[in-house]
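HUMAN: Ready with one sample?

ASSISTANT:
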Amino acid sequence: MEGNSGGGGGGGGNDVELLCKTLQVEHKLFYFDLKENPRGRYLKISEKTSATRSTIIVPFNGISWFLDLFSYYVKSDDQDVFSKELQLDTKVFYFDVGENRRGRFLKVSEASVSRNRSTIIVPAGNARDEGWAAFRNILAEINEASRLFISPNQQTSETSERLGLSDDVGAGFISSQSALAADLSVERTIDLPAADEISNLGISKVIRVDQKRFFFDLGNNNRGHFLRISEVAGSDRSSIILPLSGLKQFYEMVGHFVEISKDRLEGITGTNVRTIDSLQR
């Protein structure tokens, strides 16, 4: 089994190829092509054998979900593994584990209204699911590299908007600001670069919940230190500015609602993903 750079087949005339990877698992070759066209970015994953070729198209915002799901299957025990369903925009992806004379495999099927159902089958590999692990590692590389494909103007604008809080802004609500870099690809939780305004605090975090992202930025102005929480969904951004003096109360209030809704939260991995019974399909 080996991974290197390669191509994944042709695309539309307006498609620009950003990144290519190739992975061999047993007798199969998998091509990973990160591409861009006027409608946005996507990851094309093709499975090729000596006799067949099959392709699924993963929306750009689904790469991190695919990474999480492959990590789940790599880490799960044989008896604890479940089928999963992933909803992304107008598409639904089904993840099912099976077994034949060659061993275990993971079947990933794409269903959408715009194209026929397509399926790739990823062998588990010879030992400790090494095939799935290698597939996951390629997804991790692409997920990490995808953050590099952002124009300098876009990146500067996002940093300026997230951290450039005017001195005359106090605690309050800022609604519907334009998020010029809403397509920035991020991990579930990552450290962002510090900016001058953040001074010695220098702490920023971002999380993804469903189709939204929430940015947490510690900063200061002439009124003191604050935590800015920004919600980004598509091109819309809303923010609240929380003085640091109220942070403990905010924490206790959120903890209160986590506690009273604990029963509902247990077992949730994100509303995009749900565990399914094969009989449901």
The first strand starts at residue 2 and ends at 4. The two ends are 33 Å apart (CA to CA). Residues 130-145 form the longest helix (16 residues).
